[in-house]
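Long-time lurker, finally posting.

We've been working with Antitermination regulator (Actinomadura craniellae) and I want a structural starting point before designing mutants. I don't trust myself to interpret raw outputs, so I'm hoping someone here can both generate the structure tokens and explain anything notable. Sequence follows.
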Amino acid sequence: MHSSRRPGEPAAEDRPPGDAPGAPAGDTPGSPVPGLPAGSGAPALPSLGRLAATVERLRLEVRQAHAAADGRGVIELAKGVLVERLRCGPAEAARQLDSLAGQSNVSPLELAAEIVNQAAHDRLAEVTRTFLERTAADDPSLGVRLRTAESGALAAGDAQAVAESLLQNALAPLGATAVAVWAAGPDESLALAGCAGFPAGEAGRWRYVPPGVATPARRALLERRAVWFPSLAESGLPSVGHREVPGGGRVTVPAGTGGRIIGVLEICWPEPLEPQPPRVERQIEALAELCAHALETRPACGTALPAPPRDLVELVDLTDGLHDPALVLRPHLDANGRLADFRIHHINARFVDPAGRPRGVLAGTLLLEAYPLAADGGGLFDKVERVHATGEPFRAERMALTALVDEVPLTAVAGISVSRHGDSVLLIWRVQDEAARLASLLQHAQRLGRIGGFEENALTGEITWNDQLFDLYGLPPTAPPVPLAGLPGHAHPDDGNDIGRFLRALLHHRRPASAAFRLQRPDGVTRHIRVVAEPVLDEGGHLLATRGAYQDISAQHWTEVALAATRDRLAHTEQQAAERNRLARQLQHAIMPPTRGPFDVSDLRVSVRYRPAESDHLVGGDWYDTVVLPSGEVLLSIGDVAGHGIEAATGMVVLRNALRGLAATGAGPGQLLAWLNLVTCHLTDNVTATALCALYDPETRVLRWARAGHLPPVLLRGGRTAGLPMVGGLILGALDEAEYGEERLTLEAGDVLLMYTDGLVERRDGSLDESLNRLLTTAEGAAAVPLEQRLDHLLTHSNSDTDDDTCVIGVELR
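Top reply, 14 upvotes:
Generated this for you. Predicted structure of Antitermination regulator:
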């Protein structure tokens, strides 16, 4: 039951009899329906209606009685304060309270709350004072509400009554409609100790929350702070009443005393919750402390809550029976009742201090006094404090423990176990010595390396295997180990000779030996194994035992097989590539030798220089041709097929021969390139190329020329050089239908015409115009030398860096 008296109303003992708030004067079981004025002519209620009105009136009286009792509790506290300060009796204190209330123009209940606040100086008084200082309009009823809630909580018989008192007296004025008080169990479970404002059926469904279920209350328990949820639906966490008010706001506050959390206070609002001012947050935290006091001293309604044991005899006996070092820690509170440290209450006989101190030195001291470096953030003290607050145990296989020995930090690695037992904490650690650490490292190394160790006693026949060796053999751990003499029966028959040599060297010649064999397991799997063993001899050279290890090298074996196969395929591929390059180079040199000429054609002197690529595998498709046609004209051509290798060489042969045959028709250079483009598109396999075609008429000394994406010729006349115009023309093989323009040039005696491929001028780090200008400058520098030396000079001073074939044709008119 809870009180319905509004904050600021006088208690029942301060009002005239029958003047109950909220009920009309003279309300009797036979009175009209509440809400209708007397004498309004309303029909008389049937018996059922009168019974309902009577029940409602009795409920109201009960609530008023509870409110009056809560108010009397505050007034009695104030009377006690006056008795102590005024040195008077209780009757005089009551008269003084009424007199002071009349002089202050406040109700006795409000004055009593103020007197208690001034005398207590506790959390509630602090919340009330801060609220009044930061509120624009003073609200003296706040102190009454909080002190009334405190009085009701202290006088309540169970946590259910505490929840009802908090909701009615302190939370309803804040707009809250429901409240739940959860009790935290030692296994992280939550029990609904009390609730108000929720339907009875909903509260029954949430009577118990098992460990591990995510709820708003568990968030506050694990995070050890107040958690605000503006909307419960948006958080996605279920809780009591989430179906009735899905979009409402909530706050969950851990309730604890002395640093130990023993429950959670959960408050529900019907609407989404806006950010609350700090004064409201502090008020709710103060109410959570009231809940903690109630949970610690009173059971939940209808449920016997697990109370922490006060006698440590059983825990101490348990600690003494452990085989690991263990400490029993008790919380140590400061003057304000807050957790400050943990006192070492008991140390078992197996305790080993990392600093080597005896048990008697540490017994009874504080944890941070004995191990001050445990206070580092995230260290041992933080783990113990969290376990004590939440009840959630902590385990760690490896954790650093640092102790000070003569101001020198000494660190040891230990396995840690921390658990809470009532209000005490059990701390267990096992310091890992060097032997245990090395054994652990060896075990992990054997597991990662798939190594199994064994030892076979030659005198008793006893065989010892580790777990990894049973796995290698495919045998269960309960199977008898296989002796070395029985090894041939588990190996592939083709490996019998190798195993025989291994056994003879080990058992008869008494020297270390090793062997690789194929192990045939009972499950039909064959593994490649390497065994290494050594004899153990006494002083007289007699065999005492053999010990060694098996290693699974299956992955290494198959890797070596795959690598060998890859090497074979790579060698075959390299051989094929070298053969193809050799054939391509032979084909290229057979058609175009590196040096040709000079030779005379009519009044022309022609010389050719061809420089292959520096790398043999980069056999290119550069080509040139000079031939006298049946018409008497001289065909001068040069080209470059894209790509390298045998494909480029064969493409070069096709285009060179096709152009020579087409030139016999007497067509001009533009038409010849158009026909050659058709040949490239239809008679070759995806070949593209550049070409320069020129026809010289000895009678008129006229040179007609056309280009298909190739660089134009260079003319040397009178010691000066100049590049011929860029006549339009696509590269060969780009389009089926392409047209090529022609240019005419009348040569003079002494003129030199240079035709070349791009390998002479191309650079990766410069533009084509810069390369052409450099070529013109280089050609002018060798104007006074013979034609052959001029071509050699061009190749020597070429700054091309593309590592491509280079072909240069020099034509001099005599």
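Before you design anything, note these points.
The domain at 590-813 is CATH 3.60.40.10 (Phosphatase 2c; domain 1).
The mean pLDDT is 78.
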